[in-house]
Specification:
- There is one protein chain.
- The protein is an alpha+beta fold and about 240 residues long.
- Helix content is about 45%, strand content about 15%.
- Strands 1, 2, 3, 4, 5 and 6 form a six-stranded antiparallel sheet that branches.
- Strand 5 (about 195-205) and strand 6 form a beta hairpin.
- Mean pLDDT is about 85; it is low at about 1-5.
């Protein structure tokens, strides 16, 4: 006959609590990812579900530690609690020092403008202009982000831009050669967050100038992903690979 909860020792009860919390935490994390893969809910809702699961997991370690103190000497519960603490800590550490903005431009004086991507249903009614308040934060967070100058003609630079965008896994939406503009999107793997990107190529006396703007559709911060995307694109353009 199974013992009743009132006959269980405090260590065993806390161990069971830690186990239930761990199951709930893991279940919510997996559920968020599964819903994102099925695309039945917006990415931000799916992400929030997984974050909720991660928050529940933060209670596992304290419960496991108290259970250990009360005589339930099981290492795997402690290890599970530590793991569930490490996941959000790694996420927070990746955001450390990054400004809480999600619209980044290599040209702050005159950021490239979206044209084709303003017309897609997902951006309907959304302000696609570069936020004035982002400028100071971007300068402080990404001081090295700047335009790229090439010896190529604008048409050659645009052709290289298309090749670079496709090589980086972007989905090219429009190439307007006459306007010197390329627009594309890139989707994250886990939760399928979509970021909009516009590349602008202008003629200079020495060849051409390339500028890029990358903007997230969801959230307020981006963990530095938009700046990383611009830097990766500029690096590929500069190397010609």
């Amino acid at each position: 006959m199974l013992p009743t909860l009132t006959k269980l020792g405090p260590g065993t009860m806390l161990r069971l609590m830690a186990l239930k919390l761990a199951i709930a935490s893991g279940g919510l994390i997996v559920l968020g990812l599964l819903l994102a893969q099925l695309r039945v809910l917006p990415p931000l809702v799916c992400f929030g579900t997984s974050v909720l699961g991660g928050a529940a997991g933060l209670a596992v370690l304290p419960a496991a530690l108290v259970a250990w103190k009360n005589g339930t000497k099981e290492w795997h519960f402690l290890a599970l609690g530590v793991l569930l603490w490490l996941l959000p800590l790694l996420l927070l550490s990746s955001a450390r020092g990054k400004p809480r903005i999600n619209d980044i431009s290599s040209d702050l004086a005159e950021p490239p403008e979206f044209v084709a991507l303003k017309q897609v249903p997902a951006n309907g009614g959304r302000d696609m202009s570069y936020p004035e308040e982002n400028r100071s934060q971007q300068r402080a967070g990404y001081p090295d982000l700047a335009s790229l100058r090439l010896a190529d003609s604008p048409s050659a630079a645009m052709a290289r831009a298309k090749q670079s965008a496709e090589a980086l896994g972007w989905t090219v939406v429009e190439v307007a050669d006459d306007a010197g503009r390329l627009e594309a999107t890139q989707e994250s793997r886990g939760f399928h967050f979509v970021d909009d990107v516009v590349v602008r190529v202008r003629s200079t006396d020495a060849g051409s100038q390339v500028d890029v703007r990358s903007k997230s559709r969801d959230g307020k911060g981006d963990l530095g992903k938009n700046a990383e995307r611009i830097q990766a694109f500029m690096g590929k353009m500069a190397s010609g690979s």
